[in-house]
Amino acid sequence: MNQTEVFYRQVLRIRRVEEEVARVYPTDKIKSPVHLSIGQEGVSVGICAALRKTDVVCPTYRGHALYLAKGGDLNAMIAELYGKVTGCTRGKGGSMHLIDVAAGVLGASAIVGTTIPLAVGYAYAQRVKKTDTVVASFFGDGAVDEGAFHESMNFAALHKLPVLFVCENNFYSIHSPQLARQPHANLCDRASSYGVKSEQLDGCDVPELYARAQAAVESVRAGDGPRFLECMTYRFREHVGPNEDFHAGYRSREEAEPWFARDPLRLLGQRLDPIVRTRIEAEVELEIADAFAFAESSPFPPSEELLADVYLEAQ
User: Fold this and answer.
1) Is the pTM of this model over 0.85?
2) Within its chain, how far is the Cα of 160 from the centroid?
3) With CB atoms 3.0 to 4.6 Å apart as the test, which of 40, 83, 157, 167 could cross-link to 194 if both were Cys?
4) Is the dihedral of CA 36, 95, 122, 148 positive or negative?
5) What's the mean pLDDT when you consider all of the chain?
6) Within 10 A of 131 (CB to CB), how many other CB atoms are there?
């Protein structure tokens, strides 16, 4: 399977999972709010392709794409959205708290910016243990305004920690446009002020993003200190929930049209033979149907789970 086929399968898989989540969500079978990555999938796929299985990622609450791109268990993810005991946090965390330690996915958080210092702490532990693990911290443009971002950047730069800071800049923090919150669209300049090498990348061009991310990861792994990647992207659906939100007035469909035209899934699909594309699509549909069937048939947590994982249990 060539690189384009791999990337197309991964982006398609994430897209179709989330479209199915959006379809099921109004039935109330899904028990938690959902922040969909539709339109932004290329960033997670391109970056994760440059990471090793032993590397670690720290997601945000909009983390479905990253969880799946890094190899998180699909069945466990859908079951978690359903609140089932077979979910990745046994039905207790929901969409915003996905975790799969075996795949290198540290727990996501519903609070903006909170996983950034966790990523830096994990990277510091790897430095102490003398491993060659790279930690990728993902966050949105809104998180760059948080104090935790600046403290983390400063500490990581000071100690030359193996952290890849990945900003998925979709231009909005909930409903607030970037330039209503920041005087200049200069996120790379902000990162560079801490002595962190920074670059702005096209989040829609997955092969190019992968190539640039690969170089950044190699630099981090070699001990050259952290890197900052600002990946320009755009979410197609509302901030939270399954629908579009252009009627809300804070952004327009006209603004979104150029991003629809540069949909990473479409760009990748155009590079494939239609027969190959059809085969991949059929295989992905079967996998997704199985995952939702698994979630549907799984039980809810038993009552004794209520206090499990709250207190330290006797050994």
Assistant:
1) yes
2) 24
3) 157
4) positive
5) 96
6) 11
